[in-house]
Amino acid sequence: MGKLIKNHWARLIVLTAAIYQVAAALEGFFWPKIFWDFLTTNLNGAVYPVPILQTLNLIFGILALAWEWPLNIPLSSTTKFAETVVHRSIEARLVVYPLSALAALLLYQGTNPGIYYLIGMGVYFWAYSEGEIVCPEPWTLPRRRSRSVGKV
Fold this sequence. Notes:
Mean pLDDT: 89
Radius of gyration: 19 Å
Largest sheet: none
Distance between the termini: 26 Å
Shape: elongated
Structural class: mainly alpha
Low-confidence stretches: none
């Protein structure tokens, strides 16, 4: 049995949350509702008449999808997004995903992806605390250092 690669597991959780968040945002355009409307009606202005929260959820969901599953579209003639420091940074994910979770948790249709984001952030933090790195090529393992011939 191998070792659990936590950043791959967190990537799968966040991908699930992002897909669900996009679907929740699209559903929110048709049936706008704040999750917390049973406590207060002050937040209703975020969903109608102008769908601000739904648009934010759509943007955050697409951003998370693009971040976790980067396509081989080059940013310039020499680099792809998967090779950038932003893509390989677990710290950047731990800064952006709480905002995605907050936006999802405010929308009634987005409570499940908000919970998935929280779980994914916990697993990313676990990976970060154990010193894992995100490889430039998605779903690959870090290369081992070559062993010198003279070592015993």
